[in-house]
Amino acid sequence: MKPQAVARILDANLDRAREGLRVLEEWFRFGLEDAAGSRECKEMRQALAQWHSDPLRFARDTPADPGTQLSHPQEERRRDLSHLLQANCSRVQEALRVLEEYGKLAESSHWVAPGLAKLAQDMRYRLYTLEHELLGGSLRQRLLSAYLYLVTSPVPDWLEAVEKSLRGGVTLVQYRQKNLSDREMLRQLEQLRQLCNRYHALMIVNDRIDLALISQADGVHLGQTDLPVAWARQLLGSQKLIGLSTTNPEELAQALTAGVDYIGVGPVYPTPTKADKPAAGLEYVRLAADKAHIPWFAIGGIDAHNLAQVREAGATRVAVVRALMEAPDPTQTARLMLGELLPQGIPALS
């Protein structure tokens, strides 16, 4: 037994857990303006502080600690906010597990009073819930603020069309590509991920859960013949977004109880993107407006010319393909459409 070594382990991980909690607390406080989440992080920090006694602090020997010189490329940069929050949730959870295990050893040897191991265990389970609220919740919160959904198509200079649409205010993009190799799709997804990060937009992958996971997409969009939602959720986890296409009242009713985060409603008008699907019409839009209790997007042949009709039928969110991907000026078209959709009017240019 080495009491001094155990004391240093407890000291380092109390520091690590408290620092990570402070990072999470600040986002709850200033980013989400969530008083309850901020308060919970603060209470956990303060509870850990009570165990950070002088004997543990005095055991610290920073100059002789080889761990201060160790680093990892993922620790040296943060790709985006979700990456930052995920890293600090993991940091706290790992530190709490160390405190739980070495706390048991310290308690059995009477180096610390009983209670630290149990406290760390309870906090670790609380962190799982906080992690869901921060990451899963933040994605769903961002989904709620998305009114114009861009679905990509393989046009020339497709990425340029996407960026121009993002400049016009689009905050949700679905990558849809059917005729490329997996490697080529992954290359394009990497480019799209970087672009969406730059404009703080959500990135969804059509159909392919494997590519969504590899590319660190924010979610996946499924059709009626794709993998069942329950299996998709099991693979993606609770934090990622899942969308589901619906084309008739029966599919809509099933989707509303399937555990998806949003629904596609259409095709409203005939569209070559869904050449095998007859138009569902504005009546289906009216039904969705009456029945849907989660975000839904009218889709199929919608553009700046018929958007007013779709809005009058009850749609507050729409998804488009050709209207932006083939627009002469995607930025201006996106701004024009968002001017009709957004409660606060046309967005400022990025």
Please tell me about this protein's structure.
The protein is an alpha/beta fold. 55% of the residues lie in helices and 10% in strands. The protein has two domains: 3-141; 145-341, Aldolase class I (TIM Barrel). It has 15 helices and eight strands. An eight-stranded parallel beta barrel has the order 1-2-3-4-5-6-7-8, surrounded by six helices. Helix 10 (229-236) links the parallel strand 4 and strand 5. The longest helix is centred in the first third of the chain and has 29 residues, at 3-31. It is elongated and about 75 Å long.
In short:
The protein has 350 residues and is α/β, with parallel strands linked by helices. The chain contains 15 helices and eight strands.
CATH homologous superfamily (4th level) name of the largest domain: Aldolase class I
**Main beta sheet, described?**
8 strands, parallel, barrel
What is the ordering of alpha helices and beta strands? HHHHHHEHEHEHEHEHEHEHEHH
Q: Class of the largest domain in CATH?
A: Alpha Beta
Contiguous low-pLDDT stretches (5 residues minimum) are 70-75
Class from secondary-structure proportions? alpha/beta
